[in-house]
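Meet our chain:
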Amino acid sequence: MSKTAFITGITGQDGSYLAEHLLEQGYRVVGMVRRASTPSLERIEHLRDRLDLVEGDLLDTSSLVRLLGEHEPDEVYNLAAQSFVKTSFHEPLNTGQVTGLGAARLLEALRLVRPGARFYQASSSEMFGKVRETPQRETTPFHPRSPYGVAKVYAHWMTVNYREAYGIFACSGILFNHESPRRGLEFVTRKISNTVARIVCGLEDRLLLGNLEARRDWGFAGDYVRAMHAMLQAEEPDDYVVATGETHAVREFCELAFDRVGLDWQEFTGVDERYYRPAEVDLLLGDPTRARERLGWKPRLSFPELVGMMVDADLDALLRAGHHAVRGRIPAGVQG
């Protein structure tokens, strides 16, 4: 008999890739979406007829209790959050309510009506913030540098608490930065790939960024959702760092993105202090040893392949929309 998975945040980047992966594994997938007059479903449009989409909200415990009771999931994946670091500085209370307390509400609903289900919490490398050691591993102390990071720390420790206090099979995946063509334009990697494509088509002349020397451990979101699923198949619940073990500067991402279309990144980029964070996180580098040894997980897509994939997808979308390349070159495989 097939398992049922319940996913919050199914319309996001990770939710869409996770839904694909679970459907391939034979799961029935129930995705929670917030009530909206114009729901944003483009990332899962190709899956719509294979999903059960239900309305609920991490701010409303009663809706969570009702949905878990109705659908009786075997696995629950909490991917929903106010996930933009910059926005969290402007909306710290909303970020705390959704990203932090939202996870606690879901855990409590699970305890009340579905305590035997397995639970995954989307933790974040932003919890490390002002890092105490490099690379960062599961035992590295947290020092978040944004309201988003603080909210994720709260959700992370609540997951640990419900595991230890109530015996719930609850895991946290401390995911380092993971990108894809489905990444939101608010994130620097997608901003770079999209603007490069627009520069090729003559729709933009310049890419303005913040700290070009900020370093991150970037992987492919499609790889990382495999780790989420693997955690809930393990014999015992635990927390895992999910990362590539490599670090790259924003500048390197720019270089590869512009090189993909035959342009010199220095001719088209500039620095704007508006894009600096109030409290910067300069270096994040994960140690995925535990995930590799216990789960057998490792990333498949390399950093250059990831950058190329994102640039190709954004350029292909513009060409298909009727725009034409006016500078640079079109990579092999981009059809338009």
